[in-house]
Design goal:
single chain, alpha/beta, 3-stranded antiparallel β-sheet, globular, binds cytidine-5'-monophosphate, cytoplasm, ATP binding, ATP-binding
Length: 227
């Protein structure tokens, strides 16, 4: 059959990446986690001290942006693509709570978005790609053949993210995670440049009460019908 582009958007911790990753494996498609790219840029700027609890130096961020060198490389052990900054594997570090706290502010900067969107369009230009994020169906690939918009209640999402962080050994409080999920929802949905909105032609999936397995099966069926 033909290769298509699958865009999966939605709020934080809706299980987008879990579904997207499985879908890509099942279809033999490339999976691109665009959140990882925004997280890596944020980490880079945090290390330079341009972004911290009490500092946000947009001018310095813009000046250093051209030097941020990102790449996905296949991890032979897990079979997944890991995020690399130059030669360093930052896959784990970009998921830290500290990065989550600053990422929405960094990703609201239009020049940051322009740079990453360009790379994303390049990665998906041959189709046969499953990409997840916030603006894939609206901005990166408005012509994607299949667009999914995933939602779930704030409590369910915060609970999932909390369990994920705990499982990875991070020392976090549930309240802190819930607050971060809400803040990112708000910032991502209200920013001027490519805010998180459901594309008109996206199919919405609420998984508050549905398990991801069931959801994956449904999405896979829809995808196969289009291929
Ligand atoms: O998907 P994930 O939760 O890892 O994304 C982290 C953050 O990166 C989001 O909260 C959002 O601020 C930003 N992001 C974005 N556009 C995308 C993907 C992620 O602005 N396409």
């Amino acid at each position: 059959g033909k290769k298509i582009t699958i865009a999966i958007d939605g709020h934080s911790s809706t299980g987008k990446s879990t579904v997207a990753k499985r879908l890509a494996k099942e279809l033999g498609y490339i999976y691109v986690d665009t959140g990882a790219m925004y997280r890596a840029v944020t980490l880079y700027m945090m290390r330079k001290m341009f972004v911290s609890e009490n500092n946000f130096n947009e001018e310095a961020i813009l000046r250093h942006l051209p030097f941020v060198d990102l790449e996905f490389k296949l991890n032979e052990t897990t079979g997944n693509a890991d995020m690399y900054m130059e030669t360093e594997n930052v896959e784990e570090e970009i998921r830290y709570m500290e990065v989550s706290k600053h990422v929405s502010r960094v990703s609201a900067i239009p020049d940051v978005r322009r740079k990453l969107v360009e790379q994303q369009q390049e990665m998906g230009k041959e189709k046969g790609v499953v990409m997840d994020g916030r603006d894939i169906g609206t901005v990166v690939f408005p012509d994607a053949e299949l667009k999914i918009f995933m939602t779930a209640s704030t409590e369910k999402r915060a609970q999932r993210r909390y369990e994920e962080l705990k499982a990875r050994g991070e020392d976090v409080e549930y309240e802190e995670v819930e607050k971060n999920v809400k803040e990112r929802d708000y910032m991502d949905s209200t920013r001027k440049d490519s805010p998180l909105v459901r594309a008109e032609d996206a199919i919405e999936f609420d998984n508050s009460e549905m398990d991801l397995e069931e959801q994956f099966e449904k999405i896979l069926k829809i995808a196969k019908d289009k291929i």
